Amino acid sequence: PAAWDETQFTSINGDWRLGLAQGILYNQEQKRNLIELLLLYRGKYQYYIDEAGVLAGLPEAEGLFQNALFTGLLFDDTREDKKSLNKRGIYSVLSAEFVPAWFGNEIRGLSDFTRLSYICVGYLPVLESRAVSIYLGDRVLFDWLFGEGDRIPVSARTSFGALTKVPIGSNPLHGLGGTLRGIPNDMFDGFIKLANNFDLRLHSPALTLFNLATPMGVAYFDAGVGDHLSRRLAFEPVYCAAGLGVGLYALGFDLI
Predict the structure, then answer these.
(1) Which helix (H) or strand (E) holds 79?
(2) CA distances from 81 to 84, 118, 133, 180, 219 (A)
(3) For an engineered disulfide with 178, which of 128, 139, 185, 253 has Cβ 3.0 to 4.6 Å away?
């Protein structure tokens, strides 16, 4: 195969989805569902301009039309303190994605695989005050693709299928490249992937500007491993990334 810095192509993408979230257990304190059953249909179309021929022999070499069905079980008791901006609680989703060939996945390109995914995010406050507030955050992602290699598109190999927020969330997530911050998106193909993101986040609510934006900082350490397309998770090498950042908290998001 070509070296990673030579695998350049342009793609045109379309994406559509329809989902349903059915509550199983209600959280009276937060006035929302604690546990939900997720059902999601996702369709996508990809057209590639591949003058270098780097996609030759791959399932999507001539483009891709794909239909997928997801089901998942979600647990969410996360919450944010409005004064300190600290987060706490756990968010997790165990999900399965079904992409059979007979479900219109031979119209353009070829997709025929099943994927199991898991995401778990936890938050733990360390210091709460108006001057400075600090909390720890950790996210674990696991992804396992089943099917013949020539029926699993690269877009699946280079992504985590974990569902995020219900029912129409960001899906799929970037694979090891992109999930490990500072590593280019879509690097490190794999049928099995495992990643962890650890953050220490600091906010200064007392310095909020115009009641809209709050200064914040982050220190992070990321690590991940894959199977190198061997279908056996390998812990050598372990890809790692670390860094520091500053930004603003606004509209419910940390903008870094």
Answers:
(1) strand 79-80
(2) 6, 27, 10, 28, 21
(3) 185
Tally Cβ neighbours within 10 Å of residue 213: 15
- Other Cβ atoms less than 10 A from the Cβ of 23: the count is 14
Chain position carrying tokens 């396992």: 144
In this prediction the pTM is: 0.87
Looking at the chain, list the stretches that DSSP marks H as alpha helix, in order from N- to C-terminal side.
Answer: 154-157, 176-179
Q: Six-digit token pair at 199?
A: 């953050």
Cα radius of gyration (the chain): 20
Query: What is the identity of the amino acid at 141?
Result: L
What DSSP character marks residue 107?
S
* CA pair distance 98, 48, nearest whole angstrom: 24
